[in-house]
Amino acid sequence: VNKNKIMKQKYEFKNVVAETLLIPLYMRAKESRRKGDAILKDTMAEQLVDSIEYEYSQFDGAKMSEVGCVVRGKYFDDAIRRFILSHPHPVVVNVGCGLDTRYQRIGNDQTAVFYELDLPEVIALRRELIPEQPGNAYIAASLLETGWMDDLLRRHPDAEFIFIVEGVLMYFYEKQVRSFLHAVVSRFGGGELWFDVCGTMMSRHGVKPDSLRKHEAQIRSGINDGHRVEQWEPALQLIEQANYMKFFRPRWGFFFGQILGRLTRLCYRFSSLLGYRILKG
Asked: Rounded CA gap, 136 and 26, in Å?
């Protein structure tokens, strides 16, 4: 028996959206293995992919998602780094964390406390694969519940909170997204909220990201203009709406990087990255 061979484990997901967590994990691992020009390094993702038995090859043709996932990961990593540097008591909350390894990438500088939140079945899997650490605690809950938010406020009365909701909100209906935003905004004034969205081209016309074409998960909401969210919640102040394709242009290929990527408004109809300040009430 070859002892070096990692025992691969198979997991059955009850929730179709939960299964999508393997897409960004695989894309980060693949990126991390690139020689020379990798957008991000994520050795933990490499190890995790090796230990989970799954038909990853179904994502290999998904060129857009391949670059998109790592551009998004780096973009949010950078937002967190800036937040940590500019706030005395930063708390980072990764909402719908899946098997994200952000704490392993940036969190070990001890100044910030990191929380990972996801559905109980995902947190159970996470605990098995990435054991909790002192600065990185797990919360098994839905983002639509508010008990965990109140709990965080009780635990950290003097903290400033940054929420990252990566690859999650597009699977919820607009009404649910709005109620989540409202719950966060009404509690965490002085913090920040960063998330990615699909545009209405995806939500209304059934266009799916290339990595989801064979998948049952549906895109249920879309936002083209980041200022629309300010109308829902006046306490949210847009820091930035970013077009994925303006980052690492050569990696998107000539057409998307150099031509389509410069038509920012058009790109927003497919997807964008959003960051907001939460004003104090």
From this structure: 22
Instruction: Name the percent of the chain lying above pLDDT 70.
Output: 88
Provide φ and ψ at 67, rounded to 5°: -75, -40
Contact in structure between 167 and 24 (CB atoms under 8 Å) = yes
Over residues 24-29, mean pLDDT = 92
**Of 192, 175, 173, which Cα lies nearest the Cα of 184?**
192
Among 114-123, 139-148, 254-263, name the one with the lowest average pLDDT. 254-263
d(CA 27, CA 69): 6
Could you tell me if 159 and 90 are in contact, meaning their C-beta atoms sit under 8 angstroms apart?
A: yes
Alpha carbons 209 and 50: distance in angstroms, whole number: 24
Which residues sit opposite 277 in a β-bridge?
Answer: 192, 237
d(CA 196, CA 255): 23
132 phi, psi to nearest 5 deg: -60, 150
CA 125 to chain CA mean position, Å: 18
Q: Which residue has the tokens 């999650």?
A: 168
- Nearest CA to 144 among 110, 116, 183, 195? 183
Distance of alpha carbon 92 from alpha carbon 276, whole angstroms: 15
- In the chain, the amino acid numbered 233 is E
Its pTM stands at: 0.91
pLDDT, one tens digit per residue, over 198-236 is: 887 766 656 655 555 555 566 778 889 999 999 999 999
Buried-exposed string 208-240: b where 16+ CB fall within 10 A, e elsewhere? bbebbeebebebbbbbbbbeebeeebebbeebe
